[in-house]
Amino acid sequence: MDARPPGDEQLDPTIAMPRVVPPPPRPASGTSAGEPTVGGPVLGPPRAVPIEQAIDVPAVDVAPPIRPRFVFGNPVGYVFARFFAFVLDVALIALVATEFAYALIAVNPITGLPTNTERGFDATVGLGILVALVYVWIAEALFGTTLWKLAFGLQVFPVRGRFVGLGRALVRMLLRPIDLVVIGAILALLPGHRRIGDLLGGTVVARSPLRGFAPLLGWVLIIVLFGLPLVTVGWERSLATLVAIGEFVPHLLVRLWIHAAALFGVAR
Question: Most buried of 38, 137, 225, 243 (most Cβ within 10 A)?
Fold first, then answer.
């Protein structure tokens, strides 16, 4: 008989001991106690997923901002550039045409000196101005620009179509005197930058698409044209023509001023 004090009994290791099971985790808010758990945390209500994450949407390139078709620059400088481009075009072409005509026609072939007839010189200058106006018309119609427009970085664009054409350029030319003495400059300052000749002719004058190359090209062509009479008729005849221009032009300007003053009533 095994005499052991009470309370010192040893348990038989073959007898299974009861296993202590920890209590289940507390369910999250919005979940009932009997709801099963998956992977540890309790599943909540379905969460909305952004459409960009649910569907693999390819990135779309944002189109660059569209540049305006016509660029004008500073309005005041733009108006002055248009005015002086036309005046200098007429002056340059008229000078070269007068130099050619006077050197080939009005210079005495024996003495080499210009004939001192004021009326003959006036007719020659008038012919030169006519040639200059025709040149501006044709150049704007075919190329959309002239020598001094190139030098100022300007070009004539049709509002519709690709070329200005003879018709549009002729309308611009015929209405130019009205624009010069009335409201052409004011209209060119407005946001549309179109004088009466542009509105009726369907054109607009803006910066040349050649950008910085346009003034360089314009100045090169101006220098070439200015020196053309020296190469073709010789420096002696060219110098004689310049002497005649210096002699007769002041008188011509005075007579033009007198006629203009009488026409507009200034000389009353």
Answer: 137
pLDDT of residue 21: 54
Residue 188 and residue 73 in contact, taking contact as beta carbons nearer than 8 Å:
no
Three-class secondary structure of residue 86 per DSSP: helix
Task: Output the CA–CA distances (angstroms, integers) from residue 117 to 105, 136, 228, 233, in the order listed.
Answer: 12, 29, 25, 21
pLDDT tens by residue, 43-83: 555 565 555 555 555 555 555 555 557 888 898 999 999 99
- CA-CA distance, 114 to 107, in Å (whole number)? 4
The pTM score is 0.69
Among 6, 236, 28, 218, residue whose Cα is nearest residue 113:
236
Which sequence spans correspond to the domains of the chain?
Answer: 75-264
Structure tokens at 262: 């009488």
Q: What is the dihedral of CA 207, 88, 140, 209, to 10 degrees?
A: -20
164 pLDDT above the threshold of 90: yes
DSSP one-letter code for 206: E
For residue 157, what are the β-bridge partners? Answer: 204
**What is the SS3 assignment for 205?**
strand
Write down the H helix ranges in 182-264.
Answer: 184-189, 196-201, 213-232, 235-264
219 C-beta neighbours (distance < 10 Å), count: 14
Q: Which secondary structure element, helix H or strand E, spans residue 156, and what is its range?
A: strand 154-158
Cβ neighbours, 10 Å, residue 157:
21
